[in-house]
Design a protein that fits this description.
By secondary structure, the chain is mostly helical. It has 6 helices and 2 strands, in the order ααααββαα. Strands 1-2 form a two-stranded antiparallel sheet.
Length: 119
């Protein structure tokens, strides 16, 4: 169940993207429609149970669209809605910040591999 009322816009956003996997699912769907198995491969480490749960929540929040094709065997594809695409656009600066953070952490690790640099 979603919490309401929200304190601010960030509170509302975190309510939708909270958790370890949702942002990675949204990011994976940015590039293509995906079937469940494809998404599982694009988001390594997520269990089927958690992926299913997160997709249902994202669908309920209007971020992800689930398309069921009438064929045998059954085919289901997931894609971002317009709201999901807007959210993904909003997440891009956060991804850029994360890359900078990763580089800074790597630089700090490299420095500590050299005894002179770590004192």
């Amino acid at each position: 169940m979603r919490k309401r009322p929200y304190v601010c816009g960030l509170d509302a956003a975190v309510d939708v993207i909270g958790g370890k996997w949702k942002v990675l699912i949204i990011w994976a769907l940015n590039y293509q429609r995906c079937r469940f198995g494809e998404l599982k491969r694009l988001v390594p480490g997520v269990s089927e149970k958690v992926l299913t749960q997160q997709l249902r929540e994202l669908e309920a929040d209007g971020i992800v669209h689930r398309e069921i094709y009438d064929q045998v065997p059954p085919k289901v594809e997931y894609s971002l809605t317009e709201l999901g695409e807007d959210l993904n656009t909003a997440l891009k600066p956060l991804g850029a910040w994360g890359k900078q953070r990763m580089a800074a952490l790597e630089d700090a690790t490299d420095d500590c591999r050299h005894p002179q640099a770590c004192g």
